[in-house]
Prior knowledge:
CATH class of the domain at 60-144: Alpha Beta
Number of helices: 2
Amino acid sequence: MKNKISFILCLWFLVTGFWLLALSGCVSTPSRRSDPTQVPSLEPAAMLKMQDVPVPAGFVFVPEESYAFQSTNFRAGLLRYKGKGGQDQVIVFFKEQMPMYGWNLVNIVEYERRLLSFEKDQETCIITVEGKDNRSVITVSIAPKSQATPRKTDKPIK
């Protein structure tokens, strides 16, 4: 009798679990996009590793793949973030947000990954965006601008 009750309870849990799993797969959320060509926007995160470099909300800092050095007159670093958001969304985010922090867009390079180059005062910031579907990896590289070196000439200086 005890084995029969255990068998019935086990069967009941299996059938209930199956139905819960099957029904949860049928739920879908409606799309908020009215225009299929419009890219949904991302919001900036509240906490920033570098105060003047915004990062989309929901992107997680990856410390084991990052480094940064900052002093009163110098800073350099490579900061990596992973999160939800397609490459197009991330590109639009940085094109809109970086000028609000004083950065000027220099150029954009697009191939398998996308690179955005920004300048500000004596610094450069290169943002690399890689990803598939709705997941992206953002790499923010920041460093001082390189100083122009004098050109060599064949004529001796007199």
